[in-house]
Amino acid sequence: ATSGIYNNYIHGNLAGNAPGTSPSGYISCQDNCININVFNNIIIDTSTGTDGGGTIYFNGPGGGGQKVYNNTIQRPCCSMIVVTGTTGNVLVKNNILNCTNTNCAAIEIRPNTPTVVTADYNNGYQDSISSGYMVYNSATSGAFVSYANWQGTYSQDLNSITSNPLLAGNYGLLTASPAIRAGANLTGLGITALNSDG
């Protein structure tokens, strides 16, 4: 069976501006987390600290099959989507991963290899300036992968963009946003609540 976490609005100083704070994730699914669809969520961290942790966080063992669609994430640092110890493939598509600083990783994978994630049609803004668009094995050595290498070496995010998504005050897209019509059409998935994304 497939479950879903969707249409949530999570907003505020989620880290308490405490550098030592490291939440697992603002949406977290751990141990035997299988086939969870996480979509249409807006997660906005207004803190200014480097809180660590992930925003959407999947932890194995025994997991896999998660699908992350149409989420808007904005935070000042750290990892947007974390996959750790998950054995099955995780799909990341049509997300806005907006870093308000220059110290974010769009995707963090540990301790698995990058092939555990399939990513495309995302908008990852400022997610590679000081480290890497994707980072893996960060629990040990920390291998940072640039956006260009993520595309070229791993054939990921081939249809994605890294432009400023131009979010409005309500975190929707302004009319000039490059993210408009930049995502894949997901109506064929048959998820009614996903089709209602505005």
Outline the structure in words.
The protein has helices at residues 147-152, 192-195, and strands at 3-6, 9-12, 27-30, 36-39, 42-45, 54-59, 67-69, 72-84, 90-93, 96-110, 117-120, 123-125, 134-136, 143-145. It is globular and about 40 Å long. The strands form two sheets. Strands 2, 3, 5, 6, 8, 10, 12, 13 and 14 form a nine-stranded mixed β-sheet that branches. A five-stranded parallel β-sheet has the order 1-4-7-9-11, with no helix packed on it. A hairpin with a 6-residue loop joins strand 13 and strand 14. It contains two helices and 14 strands. It has 198 residues and is mostly beta strands.
List keywords for this structure.
five-stranded parallel beta sheet; 2 helices; 14 strands
Helix and strand element order: EEEEEEEEEEEEEEHH
Number of H/I helices: 2
Secondary structural class: mainly beta
Low-pLDDT stretches are: none
User: Strand fraction band?
Assistant: 35-45%
Characterize the largest beta sheet: strand count, sense, and whether it forms a barrel.
9 strands, mixed
Chain-averaged pLDDT:
84
Q: Approximately how much helix is present in the residues?
A: under 10%
Shape: globular
For the record, give the distance between the C-alpha atoms at the N and C termini, rounded to a whole number. Answer: 26 Å
Q: How many beta-strand segments?
A: 14
Alpha carbon gyration radius: 15 Å
